[in-house]
Structures
1.
Amino acid sequence: MDQEKTIGFSELVRSAVKRIPRGRVATYGQIAKLAGNPRAARGVVWILHSSSGKHGLPWHRVINSRGVIALKPGTGLEEQVMRLVDEGVRVEPGGRVDLKKYQWAD
């Protein structure tokens, strides 16, 4: 992916993440698809990691395709769980979220 395409993809990812409503979650792959590159879920991870604070993104609303929070204890897992619970999302032990109930229908 050349630099121009990377910048465009990053902007589209940030835009998609900002649209996830409170109390809903999306998967990395879902965001990648909305941004025009359905095979770039790992790119979404990188973009969220590198620019969430700078752009005020609701990064906590993005989880993996199995409905599980991808972060490990001590790396933001606790904060992500707290933020989701504050928005009314039930997080099961192990960081699991019921996608059938909480996944954003873009």
2.
Amino acid sequence: MTAPPRLEIRRTSHKGRGVFTLDPIVKNQLVLPMRGEILRGDQLTDDMLAMQIGPDLWLCSDGNRLDDCANHSCNPNTGFLTGKPELFALRNIDAGEEIVWDYSTSLSEPGWTLDCACGEANCRKVVRSWGELEPLHRERLRNWTLEYIRHL
């Protein structure tokens, strides 16, 4: 079993904070488990940092954990390969690279959007809920989603 990579939070030039690896990471290696308190949607408040993990389930945190600082990218280097809230390397990742994932692979809230700041050549400009992605993007991302998204 491969040792987990050493990760750290750093400031980024245009996205606030981000998570960066200090070690090389090999494809399919576990990079970052998502942790926090699981709440229903009706228990959420506006000041909570939450990631959707089910149709009405959210993983909530205080905003200071490594997984809270992992940024979105339209060209992610990690994804939910097992369907659980754990990010795995989608390719080999060099030491010093930012750990990024596609936020659309966990979210099914209709109408949710976020202006994208990833800067990738394939940037969609707006991050959307899973059901509002173009079919081409859903097909490309389907194997990197949380389990509940795979059945939508």
3.
Amino acid sequence: MLLSPKYRAFLRFRGAAVEVLEGTTYAGKTTVGILKYMLMVAESPERDHVIAGLDLGTLEKNIITKDYGIKHVFGSLVDYRPQGGAGITMPHIVYHTPGGDKIIYVLGYDNKARWKKALGGQYGCVYVDEANVADMDFLREVSIRNDYWMMTLNPDDPALPVYSEYINHCRPLPQYAADAPKELLNQLDQPPKEGWVHWYFTFDHNAAMTTKKRDQLLAGVPKGSKIWKNKILGLRGRATGLVFDLQPRNIISAAWLHKQIEDGEIKIRQYTCGVDTSYSQRSDDTFAFVFQALTECGKIIQLACRVYNNKLLTKPLSPSDIPPLLVDFLEGCRKDWGLARTVYIDNADAGTILECQKYRRQNGGLYTFAPAWKKTQLLDRINLQAGWMAHGNYLILDSCGPMIEELNAYSWKEDKNEPEDRNDHTINASQYGWLPYKHQIGGK
């Protein structure tokens, strides 16, 4: 088996309680991941372990019987019993190790009755294939029943609970932090947990991939499609039904933009800010502040965003809490970029608008707070924004992580021709900010 230096380091590394392997297709995650898993099983003092995937057939094809799978690599050291045997009724692998025989249960998380029956005890090592599509009840159950847990996955919809509950608590080792796209690193935003390690692999780390196979792979996926984004670029985002098609060319750095402004290549016409609110303590909905610039050449540039979620706050925010937070955000943006005098707040939230206007009367200041102009219907706003994106007139700084996440997740309803009411708060805030100036945006 050919192994790249990074995979060799991965195999040697010890000290993790959880290891997540995320990245592009054909990166070798499953092949090398299962090899390390088997080594960890051999080192474990426990007898019972688990390998889980979508279903038994998928596990056999992708892990057990394939080239460089368990049977190929470990040969006579393993005995696969798909029908059970020797007093064990469930599919399992008997693994002969120097520390004695180990039992590895083979579970499909599609069969709830079966895995519930199996997960009654404690296990040494657990391997979950394609964790992004796994049953969340299964993951929650198995997460408390192991000493060591490995998960593999291709990037998927960042709104999936597997990310917020598990994946985003992991962190890369310092020497490999630069391997993952900055956008994905920004999404590892939950509190880090000790011993939870994130590994990011691409087909560049797959030493067995030939140039011919790589070229064939790249040629077979439409460039710019969501499959290209998930499978080839290794970025998270829903693969189907997305409202917007955010491309790498739409994402820029602050350093590049400052240089363009200094050189006179980009001239700012004005700055504007939009605010969307949600006070729910039970949902993932957020308060969103978005600061943006309109240029003389007809571009709209998203410069900064800030979000709050009441569900995650010890002391939930109320309308009276918003004005000082918003002014602090605006002042930071003024120092970095310039002044946005008028701030447009969702006109459905009269309470927040009144609190902001009261704050101005009591404290003075530079900013005027106004209700958003929402006469332009949502579908028309989407149509405008999608067109600007396609023609390169919509840009966003790579530091606007929450907004990039939403643009890569905001989707159409499956049963109606309208977008879902989720993953849209920074998008809405941005629209409130540019709606009064929409005729100034577009190619010239």
4.
Amino acid sequence: MQQPHSNKPDVSPFNGWVLSSRGHSYFTYSQQLLPFVSDESPFYRHRTPPVSASAWLAATETVQFSKVMVYTIFFLNSLITLATASPVPRVLHSSRSSAPLGFASLGPAPPDQSLKLRFGLASNNAPGLEAALLDVSTPSSANYGKHLTKDEVNAYLAPSNETLVAVQNWLSSNNVTAVSSSGAGDWLTATIPVSKANALLGANYETFVHVNSNTSFARTLKVSLPPEVAGHIDEVHPTTAFSKPLTAGPVVSIPARANSNDTQFVTPATLQALYGIPATPANQSSNGIAASWGQFAQIADVKSFLGQFRTDLSSSTTFFLQILDDGHNIQSVDQAGLEAVGTLSPISFDYLAHFHQNLDTQYTIGMASNVTVTFVSVGPDNQDGAFGFLDIVNFLSGEDNIPPVFTTSYGFNEIDGSKGLSTKLCNAYMGLGARGTSVLFSSGDGGVAGNAGNGEQCDTFQPTFPSSCPYVTSVGSTHGSGPEVASDFSSGGFSNIFPIPSYQADAVAGYLKALGSTNQGLFNTSGRGFPDIAAQGENVQIITGGAQVPVQGTSCSSPIFASVIALINDELIANGKPTLGFLNPFLYSNAAALNDVTSGSNPGCGTNGFPAKKGWDPVTGLGTPNFAALRKAARL
């Protein structure tokens, strides 16, 4: 740092500025002096001049460098500096040029509107957790099945003390109070008005409406953070992620395909025959399945379903309910949507959610005989899919005992979310897998168009999340039985966020080689491929509002495969062995234990999509379950 001349004056108490009287003026402030071009006098500045040189000279041409005058000058200078200071420097955190297709801006969000902000803090060792996950999940590893504890997982995902201090100091200095909202402490939650969020995040919140569902929420197209916290925060939500969940089905089923081999409805009995699934009840109290999302599942419908399709089970068999975010538990028949069932008229989002809940509970209870089923109901008040994903996974992560299987039938396009949000969620699923839970997600119902398959446009293939997360098992759909064929709505493809994981590298390479130049330029050849597996997803029978309804979608497929895993887990527990946990390394190293599906495709975006081929493909994955072969692969 350049030093003042030897005849130094007193140090001003204002902002650390020092004035030298060697015939010229110099300003210093703890760092190297930077020249400020002057018309008369060689002023210097740190970043920004306190005032123009000519203005300063005009004001001080008769000043004598007395102690009093020095203080007076610097007092005035400090006031001018405050008035003309440059904006606080910021680092761009995330941005998008416009809202995704299907969303429209209604203008600036009301400044007094309340926002619940989630701050996703950087974990101290996520790569270490990935290594530990693969170590305990790869059958050839000496540590296979030695799942981690909650505390061990949290030690990887927790933020460093440096990160916590930096973020808390930043929030406190802006009068924002945040509380921890995850077991690992890597998520903080604060509720503030839009006006404060705009200032805090360098944002410009607008009200956006999702045209098809007529739901609206506040979002911004740009977020920036101060340099001192930019490296400590992975995600702030809601900001640039437009993650309204798409339903991965089910929808009221179309009539049976002409000249097809799937004219028969799918029921527990047909699935047991097709996949060799036993009807023998499970008997291990520590076994279980958790299914999630939406609003409510009806106990009366479960009872009717068992009375019609599983007469060997007690009709009093039911499920446990966990409610988050003011979720619903509506049991009245008039809420079941009988009019929509009877007329097959357009179905509301809420009604589809009800379909989901009945499907998930009926096919986990009906297929995984006597396995304890917990349904997690998330309230609709936030009108935002990401809050539901965050709250569910953070709830499970904070529990001391979690079910060995978890299945969900919702997702959104990767492009509608954000890289930070997807990565944080994916790491949380990684934590569940490391603790011994198999996490399954439906792949989606828009073919290669993902959510755009629901009437929106696309010029490149659209992967769906969480299916694209390499730490979950993604489930596609099939139909028929002699042999099974890929459902044309079964979403699949390659992630634009996550690279190909090691466990599927050979399988993906083989498919891409066989694919050749087909669809070249429409997808990421270096991305994680999905789905991983498949199961029946058309003409699946459920009971809703007391009526039998055929539905279709990959949301039928995920609970079916989850039930297979739950039954295998039950035998493993009975034999004193660990549960399967994160499935993918096990599945890819035992591909012969699945029924390979080699016909069909998943069209979208004006193309025929990806064709199903021998081996893994991005329509049906490795194939559908063969219970006896999977049981043998699990060393039972």
